[in-house]
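[step 3/7] inverse_fold.run input=structure_tokens len=265
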């Protein structure tokens, strides 16, 4: 019993005090012997280089070109209407140029689209990816509901305080890091014309949204991943070469970040 106690204590110290990565990242442990310090350094190198090395192989076969907002085909009237609605409800989407992006996408899908937006927005500063105290949760849901008054619209968020239904908009709890929560009874087996990921803004969570969208997009249907940073682009470039028809992926350079667009056409 004493030996077991000291073993647990040793593991705790190595993981939490000395930050030895082998206790959190078993997948990246080299399958060879070395001392703890060397193993720790190799794990760090393995984590840091994995995506870069996968991209190098991926782009040897095919390289994705990044699109610009100005190259998108839109109807000026739709673009202006979206901008006015985003601004009216205090959404920040037009500040990123997303009104132009969505004007282009809405040309491709139903005139009365079924919409799901992941990430309603939270004023709770302890919630990851929150809007701050001055943000307006549900702003874009209100904009979309005024733009498409006959559409079924859904919003999902990890902060239960933001889950407030109104009009034709229904909301439900969703934790992007827990894929089981995507399949909520509120949406049952519903298919969507457009899914918007404006949630946690990290690749593993975004990829859960991708996997969900592959199963739940109508044909035609679109998923938009907003607020993608330059440093995260390698993951999306790799994914573009993994997808098979009818799915395709586009990366769009917006005003101050990038958006990823998955199409089921």
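[step 3/7] decode complete -> sequence:
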């Amino acid at each position: 019993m004493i030996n077991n106690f000291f073993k647990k204590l040793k593991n705790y110290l190595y993981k939490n005090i000395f930050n030895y990565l082998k206790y959190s990242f078993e997948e990246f442990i080299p399958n060879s012997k070395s001392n703890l310090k060397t193993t720790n350094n190799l794990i760090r190198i393995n984590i840091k280089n994995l995506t870069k090395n996968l991209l190098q192989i991926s782009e040897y076969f095919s390289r994705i070109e990044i699109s610009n907002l100005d190259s998108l085909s839109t109807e000026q009237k739709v673009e202006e209407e979206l901008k006015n609605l985003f601004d009216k409800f205090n959404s920040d989407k037009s500040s990123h140029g997303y009104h132009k992006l969505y004007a282009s996408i809405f040309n491709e899908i139903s005139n009365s689209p079924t919409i799901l937006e992941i990430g309603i927005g939270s004023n709770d500063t302890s919630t990851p990816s929150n809007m701050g105290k001055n943000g307006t949760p549900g702003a874009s849901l209100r904009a979309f509901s005024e733009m498409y008054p006959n559409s079924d619209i859904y919003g999902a968020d990890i902060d239960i305080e933001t889950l407030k239904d109104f009009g034709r908009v229904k909301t439900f709890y969703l934790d992007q890091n827990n894929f089981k929560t995507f399949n909520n009874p509120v949406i049952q087996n519903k298919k969507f014309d457009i899914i918007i990921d404006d949630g946690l803004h990290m690749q593993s969570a975004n990829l859960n949204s991708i996997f969900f969208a592959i199963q739940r997009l109508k044909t035609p249907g679109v998923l938009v991943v907003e607020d993608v940073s330059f440093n995260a682009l390698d993951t999306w470039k790799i994914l573009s070469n993994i997808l098979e028809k009818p799915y395709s992926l586009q990366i769009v350079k917006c005003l101050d970040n990038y958006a990823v667009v998955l199409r089921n056409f």
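[step 4/7] annotate
The chain has two domains: 2-61, 66-264.
Helices lie at 2-17, 36-61, 76-88, 98-106, 139-147, 203-216, 233-242.
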